[in-house]
Amino acid sequence: MKLFGFKNSRSNRVEWMLQELSLPYEFVKVDLLSGEHKTPDHVARHGHGLVPAFEDGDVRMIESAAACLYLADKHADKGLAPAASSPARARYFQLAIYAVSTLDETVVPLFFHTALFPPEKRQQSVVDAKLPVWEAAAQLLTRELGDSPYLLGKTFSAADVIVGYDIALAARTGLLASHPTLAAYAERITSREAFKKAYAS
Ligand SMILES: N[C@@H](CCC(=O)N[C@@H](CS)C(=O)NCC(=O)O)C(=O)O
Question: Measured between alpha carbons, how far is 16 from 52 in angstroms, rounded to an integer?
Fold first, then answer.
């Protein structure tokens, strides 16, 4: 398997998943800083010239959450995906899609415009637009977790990797200060060995 990615990007989501499953893979660095992701070679892998791109034999994938869901199903014996017939499957899909459609679109811009970008490039209008969405998301996820350690209850699943990517980024952005349930969840998932290996530079 090959993961074409860049550290501190959404390729972390797939790498974390690969680590949770203890699968062998090659990490192929696509340097976002030098523009390598826009070269013809990489655009042939990912039509938008983004990371990650993922290869498993003849399987070629883009979209970090899709790759995680694929891997969890392919290696169902490792127990990171609820069974297809299980009622938990509905919630599992919902959380995965929610992460990429709502959380990524909220937490990533907040990280860029409050932390990553130099002050002159930060736009307060982005922060003003995204913060209320984050507050709603934080309340929703707090309710989803309830008293459980993980999103599907007692058992860690690929949903925790997919959503966990955003929660880890939110923690790094300082967005969890007034959300103790999410702060404890962030601590729980980021202390996993697989997370640490995937995020090691
Ligand atoms: N929905 C895609 C998003 C991919 C994406 O936006 N990747 C970013 C890194 S996190 C990227 O390649 N950015 C480079 C650019 O925008 O030029 C996924 O989850 O895989």
Answer: 12
Report the run of H or E that residue 47 belongs to, with start and end. Answer: none
CB under 6 Å to ligand 1: residues?
9-10, 32, 37, 50-52, 63-65, 100
List of domains in the chain? 2-78 (3.40.30.10), 88-199 (1.20.1050.10)
Helix axes 104-111, 124-145, angle to 10 degrees: 130
- Do 66 and 97 contact (CB within 8 A), yes or no? no
Contact 163, 95 (CB under 8 A): yes
Contact in structure between 72 and 20 (CB atoms under 8 Å):
no
Nearest CA owner, ligand 1 atom 2: 63
In the structure encoding, which two tokens stand for residue 69, read together?
Answer: 């869901």
Band of pLDDT at residue 94, cut at 50, 70 and 90: very high
Is residue 201 predicted with pLDDT exceeding 80? no
pTM: 0.97
Average pLDDT for the chain? 97
pLDDT at 186: 98
The residues facing 54 across adjacent strands are: 3, 61
Tokens coding 129: 């637009």
